[in-house]
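fyi for ur records
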Amino acid sequence: MQILSVNVGQPKTVIWEGRSVSTGIFKSSVDGAVQIHKLGMDGDGQAEPKYHGGIEKAVYAYPNEYREYWIKTLGRDDIAYGMFGENLSTTGWQDSDMYIGDHWQFGEAVLMPLQPRIPCFKVGLRFNDASVTPKFIEARKYGTYFQIIQEGEVKAGDTIQRIKRSEYDLTVQDVVDAYVLKDKDQKKLQGLLDIPIFPDDLKTHFRRFLK
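which gave:
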C-alpha cells in the first residue's frame, strides 16, 4: 500500500451550466512533503465546509484502482491524480478494507476512516461532463474521508499500513452500499447507528430507512 500522489488546491469559481459555482474540487499533484493537520492539509481549501473538510472529513483519499476503472469505463486518458478532488491518490486498498474506526499510518500521519465521500454534481463539473455524476453514484466507488488521529507529513511514495483494527465490523463500503442500494441491510443500518463515532448527519439520514 502506497501514496502515489499528494494533491491540494484552493477554491475557485467557475461557470457550470449557466451559473457561477464555487468549488474546491480542483486539486493538483504537488512535489515534496505536505503537512496534515487536524482540519486538513497545508495548501488545501474547501468552498463549502458544511460538506467537505472539518474534523470528520479532514483528508480525502481515492484508490488508484478506482481511477483505473474510470479510465476504462469513461474511455478517457485525461484522468489525472486529484481529478476526483482527493487529497491522497493511493494504491493497495479499497473502501471495503477501511473499517470505521481503524487507525492507518500514512507517512508520518495517522488517519481514521469515518465515512465515504458522498458524490454531488461537482464530480460532473470537474470532468466537464454532467453524466459522470450519476455514473459515479451507481458505481459505488466513492473513496474515503478520514479524521486525523496524529498530525504529520505525507508525500508521494510513503507507505500505508493499518496499525490498529477497529472494534467495529462495518466498513466504508458498507456505508456506501447502505446509502445507494434500495434493498437496505437492516442489521448493518442498525450497526452503523450504534457506532458512537459515526457522523451524526449520516445517522440522521439512515434512521429514515430503519423498519
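The mean pLDDT is 92. thats all i got for now
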